[in-house]
Amino acid sequence: MLAIGAMVADTGARSGEACAWQLDDLAPSLEEVRTLRRPQGWREAEAYVELAALSALSRAALRRWLTERHVLMERVQGTATALWVSLHPNHRGEHRVPPGTPLEPRGLYRAWTRAVGQINDQMAGEPSWVPLPTRMD
Questions:
Q1: What pTM, to 2 d.p., does this model score?
Q2: Cα–Cα 20 to 30 A to 35, which of 16, 59, 104, 132?
């Protein structure tokens, strides 16, 4: 969640834009990410690509995530190119979905809300702790 949060903070990406990131949208150095912007209310033809610089925090978190993602994808024998994939089995309706499945905006939002809620609960009362926002916007 640190990698997602840091990248969203660096880029201002909405959950749908973050879920659309593929591995090849990252620069090899992890210094930039390419984002396909589709602002609400715009037509598909008005979408545009934006390059954004990634902070040192994003790069460090991404290095850790990409290592974990690689191990996860080997274990489930997945070939997804999505940057963000599920860590645990899930479901879509009544169908079970294995770990390593690309995250969708709703799943990303739920994962973010759950993780931030846990962190805020754990850190409550700590000196200088400011609760993290539970919404991604």
A1: 0.83
A2: 132
